[in-house]
Amino acid sequence: MFQTVEWKNNSVVMIDQRLLPNEEVYRTYTNFLDVAEAIRAMVVRGAPAIGVAAAFGIALGAIKINHKMRKGFKEEFKKICKIMAHTRPTAVNLFWAIERMKKVVKDNSRLPIEELKQILVREAKKIHDEDIEINRRMGKFGSKLIKNRASVLTHCNAGALATAGYGTALGVIRTAVEEGKKIKVFADETRPFLQGSRLTAWELMKDGIDTTLITDNMAGYMMKKGLIDAVIVGADRIAANGDVANKIGTYSVAVLAKEHKIPFYVAAPISTIDLNINNGNKIPIEERDIREVTHIKDIPIAPSRIKVKNPAFDVTPSRLVTAIITERGIARKPFIKSLKRIVGSKE
What we know:
By secondary structure, the protein is α/β, with parallel strands linked by helices. The protein is built from 11 helices and 16 strands. The protein folds into 2 domains: 131 residues, Up-down Bundle (Four Helix Bundle (Hemerythrin (Met), subunit A)), CATH 1.20.120.420; 201 residues, Translation initiation factor eif-2b, domain 2 (Rossmann fold, 3-Layer(aba) Sandwich), CATH 3.40.50. It is globular and about 65 Å long.
């Protein structure tokens, strides 16, 4: 089994997702700035995985701080966190992980610096391990919504590659299969970065799960033909009212699912829910390099100098969402109440 991101010998190791499915290459990072660039360049992607990578990156930066005095250490630590926070604006898990690492420093500020460094490393490892367990719990809740012999459409990649392991949306599918259900998956290719064709298809084939790859603009036709029983996707940020930011194209799939009376499920951990944002209009949407649209790898597929828009995410309004699957249970409408209750509940 591959490792998405891990801590090894005081370094951060990540599978380079840009090279999949053709090459399975692992990158080793010994400098937090390189971890930040890896997040920005999408060596690692997926909201939970970004959060884990950021925690590891902060721990890596912290253990390399040379200041012996607490004031100097804290100033450098703040700089590390600030740099990490500027890597990807949409995925709220990034900021959740940063705040969690900041809290470790605040709560242990009187300890010797070398001891504090090791506590930060342990906290980052804990975030990693918790993420896998969270995904498995999410899978058990979500699998109840997936019927035996169902055909499920997914968009982008919300699997082990998007998390510390196991996956959110794909974790639900994995659990259903582990429970003995016969599940078929339709994977959208997910232009322009092709996370569906490169990553989701690769993951599911490794697991031996029946998977059919389709282009993004085939989803409606597949639904009309009665080939799709449910849609399940991940999320990069969920607003308090249940609006969901996810990979660009998710909104279109949700509209199609509504038209064809197909349930549209979102699987995401509590850390993806941002109760500080009232609705999806306030979620920042990352604009990425236009070459992701005009090129595949280094091959141009569009006229030079053509104007291009490349938002990495869109927002699906809560009215199109059937249910939100979390590690603490399933939230249903009205989400403004159910999400607040689930986030505030004790595990």
